Each structure stands twice: as structure tokens, then as C-alpha cells.
User: Which sequence fits this backbone?
């Protein structure tokens, strides 16, 4: 039995998120079904974390145990030949028997993309969220830095989330929160790298910095809400389709 | 009554092409229905040309006559609010009563996009075609220049096309056929600008230059097929999804 780590890219548009559920097709289930079809083995593919319905990934990590001895490079080809083209396996790698893609993750990076033009180009409609108003991107960038550091991110957590009452709590470290500007295509991508994220955290940060950039929320109110742990003091949760799980880093994989 | 010219962008994935037909939803029909819903006027939207099922557009031109006096900027907003988000009206402009988007077109530019990596990124899957093998892009570029100039493009026309027996014939002028390289994203876009195109012409050119770039077809064979008007001497017709009608130019619109 080998433990195999997959690097997975997907367009989440047509899925009910990563995690297997009753009411919608999911990324996890689709990959598990392809593995069962190929090798006759029922496996569970553990993700580095869930992604919500409509959220995309460039570098999700999924781990499972396989009896079959197919080499990893051929496994990639076989899986891609048996998956829909909105899910692609980029890499397969044999890893330690106790490797856990969620608990062993050291850093995760999410991207959140806004489109800052007046009319959303059709080919971007599933991957970017329109700003709808003139946005001050320098101010967005400045606001992003408020989220950097180790602090209690209770204000950036969807109400009802398990983290609010869990032993682990709501303290996280954000190593970097920056803005990537593609002015030619009017795409502005927020890139946030941290040691862990609360439920909806990146979408709450994205919604908040955009409101500041549009002049709808003062940056001082954001700083205060972070100190107070006050979700209501931040902006709205931005839509799922703008979010991409960009990469997950491990000390060893 | 005013004649109005629309600049239209669309993702053709879910449509049976531009032109109204029985068996599938089309771009033309979808826009005509939105106009009828908004203004109660049954109109025909004439395109600058048909695009096939799965073909996209960035700057298709569609023209229709409207009794309603809505200003053009408000017409854009109203149409976009009543169209699915894979069709966007970029501009509306009042034009001459006898303006014909097909016959008055002076230049059209098509783009055809290849992805030159080993695994197609999910977010590009509907807009780019995988090369599947190592491609010599310098050779692709050199081959593209063979298609520049005024000549009989009979070899670049799908068999059975009306152009083969029409009075207008198969002579066209290609002003420019060039390669746009985006090496970071492994996207290679063929851009072809001409005074008119035969049925499947750009897809046949794209399929041909790719085969040359892969070493499957000698450039001399391409030159000979063009002189001989021999469709069989060129490459396969490349898939629809890589093709985008990029722009249509008029002396006056």
C-alpha cells in the first residue's frame, strides 16, 4: 500500500465544492470515482482543506492510499483520461504513510480576482468578480497590509463556524497579503499566504478591501473591527467564483 | 426607425453558433429575443458573418433596426441586464440606414489559440486547443507568412462550401498572419487579418501551421497545396473552441 499525493487543478463552477456530499457532484467524489473505476479500489481522497461550491483551485493537494503499483507518471495520465476536463491532475507523488495534507500544511496561498472594467468579458465571468465602481487600488493594497501578521482573526470568520468554539481558536498568521495588478486586462488579484484560514476568511478579506477601495468603508474601521473581533465591522463576503486555492506548501511531501 | 450596430463579445461554448437555427440556441436568436422582450419589437440582428458552434467572439458586429428611441448607452445596459453572462454587448452605435455589417466589412481579424503545455489548465479548456507535442513555434510563424497576400485560397476552404461555386469565388487578401506568444502561460495565438474568409479557412490554416510546427507536414508541401488549390495537401481543420472572431473593421460604422 502506497500513500499518494496529487496536485490538483479545477474549475469549481459546476461542483458543490471539494467535499463529498449528497446534493451535488463534488471534486473529491469525482476523483475517488475515477480511481475506483481505474483500479477497483474504493479510496478516500483527503484534501488539504475544503473548497466551497464555485471556488477554484490551481494547486489543491489530495492524498489517498493505493494498493495498485502503477507508476506515478502513468497515474497522472490515467486519471486525466478518466476525469472531466474541468479537473486536472498536475502531479502525483509517493509520500510518507502518515502524511496528512491538512495538518501537515505549513502555508496556503489563496488568490481572489476582481475585474475592474465596466463590462465583464464572457471568458472571465466564472473566475473574476466585477468591482462595479471605480476602485482605488492603492488603498486596497494598503488595507491588505492590515491583515498581515499573527492575530486573532475572529472578525474574518463566518458566524456559526466551528473555529469560533474550537480548541484551536481563531488565531492565525498571515505571512503576506498583496495585490497583483494586471492593468491591461483590468484584473486585480489579491494574494494571501498564511499558515491557516478560517471559514470564508479570504472572501471576507476580499470583500472588505474592495469596500475600502470603493470608499464605502474607512480603513480605520477595518483596523478597529480586527481588534474588536467584530465581523459586522468588516465588508461583505465576496462571491465564491473569484476565489482560487493557489498553492499549499509542506516541509516535505 | 434607427439602424443600430452592436459590438458583441461571447463565449460560444453553449451555443450552436451565431445564426438562428432549429436545433440549438444561438447567439443571434438570444440577442433578438432580448430585444423583443425589452421593446416588444421583433427584429433580425444581421451579423458581420456567421460563427460556428463553439467559436467565440470579442468583437462581432450585429446590426438591427429599432423603432424605440432608447439612447445607445442605456441600450447597452438594458441588453446586458437581459442577456446571459456569456454574451455581452460592449457598445451600441447608431449607424447609416443602409449599413450592412457583412458587405461593408473591410477587414476581419480572427485569433486561434493553442496551449503548448502537457496538461490543459481547466480555466483555459474552453478557449485553447492543446498542441499535444513539442511544437517549433518559429516554424509555425514562418509557415503563417505563406498565407499572406492576395491569392486563390481554394485549398483553405471546407469542401462543399458555397464559395467554391459562387461568383465571388475563392480569391481573398490576407493582410497579416502572425503569431502572438505568451510563453509564461504557454499560450500561442495565431492572429489573421484579411478582407474576407472562406468557410473554415482560419481553422484550416491553424491546423496546417500546427502540423508544420510539429514536423508532421513540410512547409514546401503547404506552399504547393496553396498553388494547387489542394485542400488535401493542408493540415486538419483545427477544433472550433480555439477560434475567436477578434474584430471587424469598417470604413465608417
Assistant:
Amino acid at each position: 500500500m502506497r500513500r499518494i499525493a496529487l496536485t490538483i487543478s479545477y474549475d469549481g463552477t459546476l461542483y458543490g465544492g471539494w467535499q463529498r456530499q449528497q446534493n451535488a457532484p463534488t471534486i473529491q467524489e469525482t476523483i475517488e470515482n475515477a480511481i475506483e473505476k481505474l483500479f477497483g479500489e474504493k479510496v478516500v481522497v483527503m484534501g488539504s482543506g475544503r473548497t466551497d461550491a464555485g471556488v477554484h483551485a490551481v494547486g489543491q493537494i489530495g492524498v489517498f492510499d493505493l494498493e495498485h503499483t502503477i507508476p506515478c507518471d502513468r497515474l497522472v495520465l490515467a486519471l486525466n483520461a478518466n476525469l472531466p476536463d474541468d479537473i486536472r491532475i498536475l502531479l502525483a507523488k509517493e509520500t510518507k504513510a502518515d502524511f496528512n495534507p491538512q495538518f501537515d500544511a505549513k502555508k496556503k496561498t489563496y488568490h481572489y480576482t476582481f475585474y475592474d472594467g465596466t463590462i465583464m468579458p464572457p471568458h472571465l465571468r466564472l473566475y473574476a468578480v466585477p468591482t462595479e465602481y471605480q476602485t482605488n487600488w492603492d488603498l486596497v493594497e494598503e488595507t491588505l497590509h492590515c491583515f498581515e501578521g499573527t492575530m486573532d482573526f475572529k472578525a474574518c470568520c463566518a458566524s456559526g463556524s466551528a473555529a469560533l468554539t474550537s480548541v484551536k481558536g481563531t488565531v492565525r498568521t498571515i505571512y503576506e497579503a498583496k495585490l497583483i495588478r494586471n492593468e491591461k486586462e483590468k484584473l486585480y488579484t489579491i494574494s494571501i499566504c498564511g499558515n491557516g484560514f478560517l471559514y470564508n476568511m479570504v472572501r471576507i478579506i476580499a470583500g472588505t478591501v474592495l469596500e475600502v477601495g470603493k470608499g464605502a468603508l474607512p480603513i480605520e474601521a477595518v483596523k478597529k473591527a480586527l481588534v474588536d473581533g467584530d465581523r459586522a465591522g468588516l465588508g461583505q463576503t465576496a462571491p465564491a467564483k473569484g476565489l482560487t486555492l493557489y498553492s499549499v506548501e509542506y516541509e516535505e511531501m
User: Anything to note?
Assistant: Strands of chain B lie at 2-10, 46-47, 56-66, 87-95, 105-115, 129-130, 149-152, 171-182, 187-194, 243-250. Chain B has a mean pLDDT of 95. Helices of chain B lie at 27-39, 72-81, 137-145, 201-213, 219-228. The first strand of chain B starts at residue 2 and ends at 10.
